[in-house]
Amino acid sequence: MIARLAWKNIWRNRVRSSVILSAIALGLFSGTYIDSFMKGWIVDTVNSDINSHLSHVQIHDTAFLANNDINAFFLRSFVSEPIEAAGLAVSTAYRLILPGMLASANNAVGITVKGVVPGEEKAVSTIENQIPDTLGAFLPDDARMPIVISKKIAEKLKVKLKSKIVFTFQDAQGEMQSLAFRICGIYKTTNGMFDEGNVFVRYSDIFPSTGLPEGAVHEAGVRMADLETCETVAPPLKNLFSTLSVRDWGELNPALSMSMAWMDFFGIIIVGIFLLALSFGIINTMLMAILERTRELGMLSAIGMAKGRIFRMIMLETVFLTVLGSMAGIVLAALVILPSMKSGIDLSFLMEDQFEDYGFGSIIYPVLNAKMFVQMLVLVISAGILSALYPARKALKLKSLEAIRQ
Amino acid sequence: MTPIIETKNLYKIYTDQASEVRAVDDVSLRIAEGEFTAIVGPSGSGKTTLLNLIGGLDSPTSGSLYAGGKDISGLSEKEIIHFRLHHIGFVFQAYNLIPVLTAKENVSFVMELQGRKKEEIKRRAEELLQAVGLGDRMDSRPAKLSGGQQQRVAVARALASRPQFVLADEPTANLDSQSAENLLDIMEQLNRQEGITFIFSTHDPRIMAKAKRMITLEDGKIKSDVLK
Question: Looking at beta carbons, which residues of chain A come within 8 Å of B94?
């Protein structure tokens, strides 16, 4: 009965109720949209970096981190056997990492060559998918001395698919080695900085020239099922290889990890501002509703409606408004965000490739989940209830006789 | 006959720094069950204040006030609201219906507050609206009813809780003559047939003419108390 009256009461002034409902709906939609957009942006960036080159976890010799010394290697069996035995990883790719000079007939650039086993690399990274169909393939088996370079490097060296380029580096004995490769693929990731410095060749093609012992590698890229699994699996991996450097993606790219934390923090700030504005809106609306109904509230008390019931009625009116507004906001958010989760939001028109130069993708895929909706709903309703306390208390303080006389 | 309302040396005094106004001044009276009583007097004589005191909407400065055999002058706010819900019916000058509810819902509302059963609420609300001649307007909201019709809904609402007595403050003041006559006929009939006690505060000569007892107040004091 109280609920029915409260429901009818919110439709007394349809314009005012519609305004506050719209404010709640738009506020919740905006909060959810911004949050899902920011989360999508950062999650895309994290996943892109993990997929293209970071992996979830990387393992190196501790000395290798200091100056990429070719002699700071470890044997793949030293890592692969314990990882397989422990069943901690989905897949692992082992790489040689060789800094050196890549030269064409026109130009030369300092880069890092990654000597990889193509099958392993495809299982750990998505670099193969970053090569457009028209720009070759990722280290095909039948190619002789193939190399995959980035679009940026190709532009600097002024080379194209099938061009010949020479890689010069220092081997384990300090001797200069030069190897000629033919470009078999040109990739482009969403991380411009990565693209500027990395090329891929087959392990089997470059290993004989390194002077390293059989089975030597500089890096193991470990892939887990997802980011959440990474959080739980990284610590046991570290314990497994206490003599090596085992770093998860957050340690490998602290800026990225920090960005993620900042995004969460900004999300809280934005939601906080929205809830504060919403609270003032609700207080204002409910105070006006009570002021308009002073005489009626006095009458209700006169005919025997207990103060507790009047209090409950006012609170219920607010709850109905906030729930209704929130539902509308959620529907609006779902209608707008869900389609863009698949198609993405292309921001390249804003700054063309500059996003990618800073390691961010220019197409954002918003992230939205039921948990976020529930959190927003609970927060909005809680803010509504808290905001209604003051107007409801005002209603409680009304004296029947004085109220009726108004 | 057992008094349903009894006041003894009842005072309501309003004071400020400069003066003292005795709105109700040493009023002692007894109203028996089934009476149809009008409290009359010029403006400012204290009749509405007396009605408010009897209805527990205001508290006396001193004196005792018994309603239904219970001293209500010392009840807490919570207790007095509960007492009003179960023992008193109110008819206000300005109808004071809930605008978002239909006539039937307005009448049902008090019974719902009392926690009565759904079937009983429905039956009684329909009976009462039939009794006040609004059987065909049960689903109309107050805005769709005339002033007279609204006041008849208010009377039905006042009776819905099966009160011991009904307090009506200037119930005809906002009505045209015909509507006022109709309303008074209905209330007189309810009094006569069902023995419902009505106490009016009024200037209206039509109520005075129908009242079986007329208490005249002047400057807060009972000037005359005439049983017709």
Answer: 295
Q: Which of residues 309-328 of A touch B (CB under 8 A)?
A: 309
CATH superfamily of domain region B34-58+71-227: P-loop containing nucleotide triphosphate hydrolases (3.40.50.300)
For chain A, the domain total comes to 2
Q: How far away is chain A from the Cα of B188, in angstroms, using its nearest Cα? A: 22
Residue of chain B minimizing CA distance to A300 = B98
Distance from B82 to chain A by nearest Cα, in Å?
6
DSSP string, A128-197: GGGS-GGGB-SS-TTSSSEEEEEHHHHHHHT--TT-EEEEEEE-TTS-EEEEEEEEEEEE--S-HHHHHH
Cβ of A304 and B57 within 8 Å? no
> Would you call B100 and A5 a contact, using CB atoms and an 8 Å cutoff?
yes
> Are A364 and A261 in a shared domain?
yes
pLDDT tens-digit series, residues B90-134: 998 888 899 999 999 999 999 999 999 999 999 999 999 998 889
Please name the member of B52, B84, B92 whose beta carbon is closest to the beta carbon of A304.
Answer: B84
pLDDT reading at A87 higher than 80: no
| Distance between A13 CA and the closest CA of chain B, angstroms | 11
Nearest to A115 by CA among A93, A133, A86, A92: A93
Q: Encoding tokens for residue B210?
A: 């129908």
Nearest CB to B113; choose among A9, A304, A307: A304
> What single-letter amino acid sits at A272?
G
pLDDT level of residue A356 (50, 70, 90 thresholds): low
Q: Which of A207, A223, A239 is the last residue of a domain?
A: A223
How long is chain A?
406
Residues A185 and A101 in one domain: yes
Nearest Cβ partner of B90 from A1, A303, A307? A303
pLDDT in tens, A98-114: 999 999 999 999 999 99
Q: What rounded mean pLDDT belongs to chain A? A: 88
Domain boundaries, chain B: 34-58+71-227
- The top-scoring range by mean pLDDT among A251-255, A318-322, A402-406 is A318-322
Instruction: In whole angstroms, give the CA distance from residue A316 to residue A329.
Output: 19
